[in-house]
Amino acid sequence: MRFAVVVVLTIAVFGGWGPPSPAADLSTPATGASVEEDFEDLPPGPGRAAVYFTCTACHSSKQFTQQRMDREDWDQAISRMVHDNKMAAPRPWARTLMLAYLSSHFGVDVEDWAGLPPGPGREEVFYLCQACHSLKTVLQQRLSREVWDETLVWMVEEQGMPEPEPADYARLLDYLGTYLSPETPR
């Protein structure tokens, strides 16, 4: 009987068992800090809390806010985190919120491509380079083909960039050496 009373009181005081529903208001900070301090630099919107609490358990928010991916790529990234990095799989409703939030706030604007000039290899540069740093870092460089080649080798050997397949490497190098060379206008 005492156990039943404790259970009823616990439910009455704490509002039930398990994680909050998607309708729960997680946008108000419990610590007295401002919302922006609690959620770092994440813009307001449905799914922000799910993204914040899931992703910042392992990453700084800066590691994913600089990314620009479509919904399918964000979905694959979450799957990779679950499979390869043993992240706890978000509940289906949380994953749906996360995907909507990430693709709307950090999605791909195919009209813009973060300022990369159009040309063969732009997509490869767009996705590969911003996996580690802002594309502004790439855009401000105006290097010769030879120096781009050295830079890519350095990125693979010293910075942990995944080594592209030979055809992809050639496409990256062609793009960088053509569209982001010292001779191209800014």
Please provide a brief summary of the model.
This protein has 186 residues and is an all-alpha fold.
Keywords:
single chain, about 190 residues, Cytochrome Bc1 Complex, Chain D, domain 2, mainly alpha, about 0% strand, 10 helices
**Count of distinct structural domains:** 2
Number of strands: 0
Number of helices: 10
How much strand? under 5%
Question: What's the architecture of the largest domain in CATH terms?
Answer: Orthogonal Bundle
Determine the mean pLDDT: 79
How far do the termini sit from each other?
A: 76 Å
Briefly note the CATH topology name of the largest domain. Answer: Cytochrome Bc1 Complex, Chain D, domain 2
Catalogue the unreliable spans: 3-29
| Structure classification | mainly alpha
> Helices and strands, in N-to-C order?
HHHHHHHHHH
Cα Rg: 22 Å
Largest sheet: none
Instruction: State the fourth-level CATH superfamily of the largest domain.
Output: Cytochrome c-like domain
CATH domain class of the largest domain: Mainly Alpha
Notes on the protein architecture:
By secondary structure, the chain is an all-alpha fold. The protein folds into 2 domains: 44-108, Cytochrome Bc1 Complex, Chain D, domain 2, CATH 1.10.760; 113-179, Cytochrome c-like domain (Cytochrome Bc1 Complex, Chain D, domain 2, Orthogonal Bundle), CATH 1.10.760. It is built from 10 helices and no strands. α5 (71-85) crosses α6 (92-105) and α9 crosses α10 (166-179). The protein starts with a helix and ends in a 7-residue tail after the last helix. Mean pLDDT is 79; it is low at 3-29.
